[in-house]
Backbone:
């Protein structure tokens, strides 16, 4: 399917395929339009179905954010990143920033040196499930937001293209990081929707206005009676946002 550059630019929503079977994933895809969104395959679906499903999803025209959050020694992560790029053709992949500068540099170098498609490589800063108390318990002496900024700067210096962050951190990161540094945010909800286990949420238009580039949306779309209609509502909510015409 041919998707022009403007459409690509407007595809801000990444639907999280948080299911554990191929049937469920393909049923969901049947409800979505690859010209309007991208999809995220995380540890649950990847562990259940493996790379074959990534290929099937791509064959249906969807670009894939492979959310496997690699975290290991530099050589191991660099090789995994290369395979995700060259053999799986992922559109976006991520690694844990807390794996350290050498691991981040090895990852971005592996991509630069690879002949395959260059996915967006983004870092996971501080998991939103960790608060200041949990970080102290882990031995960190900074608050969560200080740690997020520190790790985001490290990602940028190591050549990563952006980070995954909570909507609450978007404004600070947009101010502190260079223009073009990609911010990907989960925790997106419209006012009428259940927050579920998300603690700090933001509406789609607000998150984009604050400076997010991509919004990861799971249950509000995947568990709607009509996922396609729910996606349309999200697109209507962000329609007209100035960043859409970048
Ligand atoms: O269903 P919901 O919209 O809450 O899904 C959000 C998606 O984003 C899930 O796949 C979740 O694992 C992911 N995510 C998150 N918070 C992070 C990182 C990823 O919610 N900090």
Residues:
């Amino acid at each position: 399917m041919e998707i022009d550059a403007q459409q690509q630019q407007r595809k801000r929503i990444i639907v999280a395929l948080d299911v554990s079977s191929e049937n469920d994933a393909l049923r969901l895809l049947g409800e979505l339009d690859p010209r309007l969104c991208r999809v995220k395959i995380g540890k649950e679906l990847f562990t259940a179905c493996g790379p074959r499903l990534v290929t099937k999803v791509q064959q249906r025209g969807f670009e894939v954010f492979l959310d496997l959050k690699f975290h290991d020694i530099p050589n191991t992560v660099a090789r995994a990143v290369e395979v995700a790029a060259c053999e799986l053709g992922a559109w976006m992949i991520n690694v844990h920033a807390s794996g350290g500068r050498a691991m981040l540099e090895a990852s971005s170098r592996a991509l630069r040196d690879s002949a395959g498609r260059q996915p967006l490589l983004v870092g996971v800063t501080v998991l939103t499930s960790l608060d200041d108390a949990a970080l102290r318990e882990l031995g960190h002496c900074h608050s969560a937001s200080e740690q997020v900024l520190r790790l985001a700067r490290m990602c940028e210096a190591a050549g990563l293209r952006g980070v995954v962050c909570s909507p609450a951190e978007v404004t600070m990161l947009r101010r502190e990081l260079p223009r073009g540094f990609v911010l990907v945010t989960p925790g997106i909800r419209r006012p009428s929707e259940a927050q579920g286990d998300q603690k700090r949420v933001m509406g789609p238009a607000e998150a984009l206005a604050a400076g997010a580039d991509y919004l990861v949306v799971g249950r509000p779309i995947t568990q709607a009676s009509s996922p396609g209609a729910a996606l349309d509502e999200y697109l209507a909510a962000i329609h007209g946002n100035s960043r859409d015409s970048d």
